[in-house]
Amino acid sequence: MKLGVWGLGSMGSGMAQSLIRTGHSVAGFDPRGVTLDGAADLVPSEMEAAIVVVLNAAQTEAVLAEILPQLTQGAVVVACATVPPDFARAMADDCAARGVHYLDAPISGGAARAAAGDLSIMASGSAAAFAAARPALDAMARTVFEMGDAVGAGSAMKAVHQVLAGTHIATMAEAMVFGMTQGIDPERFLEVIPQCGGTSWMLENRGPHVRDGDYTPRSAVDIWIKDLGIAADIAAPAGIDLPMMQAALDGFRRAVEMGLGGEDDAAIAKVYAAQAGVALPGEAS
Amino acid sequence: MKLGVWGLGSMGSGMAQSLIRTGHSVAGFDPRGVTLDGAADLVPSEMEAAIVVVLNAAQTEAVLAEILPQLTQGAVVVACATVPPDFARAMADDCAARGVHYLDAPISGGAARAAAGDLSIMASGSAAAFAAARPALDAMARTVFEMGDAVGAGSAMKAVHQVLAGTHIATMAEAMVFGMTQGIDPERFLEVIPQCGGTSWMLENRGPHVRDGDYTPRSAVDIWIKDLGIAADIAAPAGIDLPMMQAALDGFRRAVEMGLGGEDDAAIAKVYAAQAGVALPGEAS
Fold first, then answer.
1. Chain B partners of A200 at a C-beta cutoff of 8 Å?
2. pLDDT of A285 above 70
3. What pLDDT score does B100 carry?
4. A158 assigned to active site
5. How far is CA A280 from CA A186, A187, A215, A266, B158, in A?
6. Nearest CB to B244 within list A120, A239, A247
7. Of A45, A169, A217, B246, whose CB has the highest number of CB atoms within 10 Å?
8. Domains of chain B
9. In B, which residues are within 8 Å of A157 by CB distance?
10. Beta bridge mates, B49
11. Cβ separation of A244 and B165 shorter than 8 Å?
12. What is the rounded average pLDDT of the residues B135-164?
């Protein structure tokens, strides 16, 4: 296939490389001037698929405003940012008006799995959109969860997933700090809990960042303000309370107030540690 | 070894059977008149170890008040209930005054692992207490996490573990209900999430109870009022906020107010479902 990938951050560049490795012709675009090794020289009118791997809804909208007039009928937009389901439906309508398919296709997995072609994709869209995107999906993902033909279902699944993931990061941080107040150091915590029923994928993935005092952003605090904000924006107008999610979002917001928005999301531990009066690994006591 | 097991509920009876199966002589005691297959006829003065597997601190205290005058010097009490660290220290002092060792040894794993001798035990106590208890620990547990020689450390680790486990149950329930409001049924939720970074051990263990509408208590809502209450009782006097735990405890308390205290802890989903106005599997809409 001839494709374009918009957004060459850690996810987009890995996905583009997975596409190139499996024999596709891929052009890459990034407003920061990032370039793509092995890229093909393609313009949107030549492309069968446009993979949009930008940060949020506003950036997705900006990319589509630019490329939609240039895409040809039957091409497919694969929209991978975490966005509100209503936004996904609006973009799909814009695409449909020009005969372009739209796959609502948020991704999960992280940079290493993106580079390996091992992502999870939570996708919804018409059968024609899935068919047009299939070779690209197969190159980028280990698992494509097909959430049905209604655009928005993929984004809804992603919002639910982010509620779980963000809440588990906050819970890991709270429990690790609580343990420290009781004399349980992070190393011991991470030896014991993963062997017990209290573990989570996020605890095992992010806990070592706190133990090592390493807040290099693999996924930043700011991402959770956005992603949990999407869940809040879906739930609030419908009168749905999400108290666990809200407690996590409150923690991430306090982290931003402490100037930690650009740090790794495990830095939410600094919020709880400051409150409890304990010094995390790597911090002065 | 000659041992007694106090408390023949689902955990205690499985642990007693694991001890019998590995060749120990075991007497069993339960105020409800439950009996133990293959039990030996022993009185406390003959026992090298007393395994106390009752519900809470009050029951532990009552058992010790009864048996401590009868135990001989050098015997060991293995206290397995989830209790406050301060309570464990007080009991250890009472035992020490009579020359009896005390192992602060909360358990994790559930009935099936108790019966298989595969529990996790978070234990702290003197080297002499560990040595005296070792054959019994080996018979009951796959993993003994040695939390040091200070009684209370095992109970602190258990409290931290319960913060994680209880919070993850509440988060699973909230996210599953949120998904239902967005058209994602529990079956699909449980197909997708366990393959993604948003999963937890509790989600995979308790989620199917909600999907199946099966609230037969494997572990009851009431347990979490007690266990999260222990965490709150440790944290509050020290001025430590546990906002994630508190949000979960609020949910379990609302479940009790709805008359669900004796149901499986997955019934916390009924709290969130009632608020969101969705009908869970097995419930009238």
1. 164, 168, 199-201, 203
2. no
3. 98
4. yes
5. 9, 12, 12, 12, 21
6. A247
7. A169
8. 2-150 (3.40.50.720), 155-276 (1.10.1040.10)
9. 179, 182, 184, 192
10. B3, B76
11. no
12. 97
Beta strands in A129-253 (DSSP E): 141-146
Q: What is the ipTM of this complex?
A: 0.94
Nearest residue, CB atoms, A174 vs list B153, B156, B244? B244
The C-alpha of B9 sits at a distance from chain A's nearest C-alpha, in angstroms, of 20
Cα(B96)–Cα(B100) distance, rounded to whole angstroms?
A: 5
For residue B103, give Cα distances in angstroms to A85, A258, B10, B127, B128. Answer: 54, 42, 21, 10, 9
**Chain-centre distance of CA A271, in angstroms?**
23
pTM of the model: 0.94
Q: Do A171 and B175 touch (CB under 8 A)?
A: no
pLDDT attached to residue A110? 86
What gap in Å lies between CA B127 and CA A226, rounded to an integer?
51
Tell me the C-alpha distance between B137 and B116, whole Å: 13
Between the alpha carbon of residue A111 and those of residues A10, A77, A154, A278, the distances in Å are 5, 21, 20, 32
Tokens, residue B61: 């205290």
DSSP string, B114-171: HHTT-EEEEEB--HHHHHHHHHHHHHHEEEEEE--SSTTHHHHHHHHHHHHHHHHHHH
Place of tokens 């002092």: B93
In this structure, are strands B49-52 and B76-79 parallel, antiparallel, or unpaired? parallel
Cβ contact B198–A161 (<8 Å): yes
Query: Residues A244, A167: contact at Cβ < 8 Å?
Result: yes
B198–A162: do the CB atoms touch at under 8 Å? yes
Q: For residue A246, give how far its alpha carbon lies from the nearest alpha carbon of chain B (Å).
A: 9
